[in-house]
Amino acid sequence: MSVVVDSKLPWGEAATKFADFVRERIQERIKARVYPAVSLMAGKQTNEFLMLRQGIADFALVSTINWSSTIKPFNLFNLPFFFPDYTAVDQITGGVVGEQLNNLIKNKGVTILAWGENGYRELVVFLK
Fold it and tell me: What is the torsion angle, in degrees rounded to the nearest 10, for the CA atoms of residue 72, residue 54, residue 112 and residue 27?
């Protein structure tokens, strides 16, 4: 699992908990390993999508801003202060628009497992 930030930051901690959860659920038949600070991607955050599609990474915890050059509709989440509150973000990601984004990215070979807020201006996405 690739994660953009260091393992001591909240995203990194979330990635570690996810890996622990995977190991626990499958009784350690698969060794889930976290690569913090984009170390699996040699520091190139914008390569994560391609590396997921190629199977180099199995999971990634990413920011939509890093993928918006590849997945243009993700720019919706990069608009400064477009969403007035967390409820508005949840309505988008949990509604028709979120479903459209899920389908768009799934058609490109990547599956969104969950959305997570990272302030009103950015979103974090767990992907497989």
Answer: -160
Give φ, ψ of 115 to 5 degrees: -105, 145
The rounded distance, in Å, linking the Cα atoms of 82 and 88 is 9
SS3 70: coil
Share of the chain above pLDDT 90, in %: 32
Query: Token pair of 29, please?
Result: 């038949």
* 2-127 maps to CATH 2.60.120.380: no
More confident residue, 22 or 80: 22
Token pair of 59 as six digits? 């999971």
Task: Report the distance separating Cα 84 and Cα 44, nearest Å.
Answer: 31
As a three-state string, the secondary structure of the chain is CEECCCCCCHHHHHHHHHHHHHHHHCCCCCCCCCECCCHHHCCCHHHHHHHHHCCCCCCEEEEHHHHCCCCHHHHHHHCCCCCCCHHHHHHHHCCHHHHHHHHHHHCCCCCEEEEEECCCCCEEEEEC
**pTM for the whole structure:** 0.79
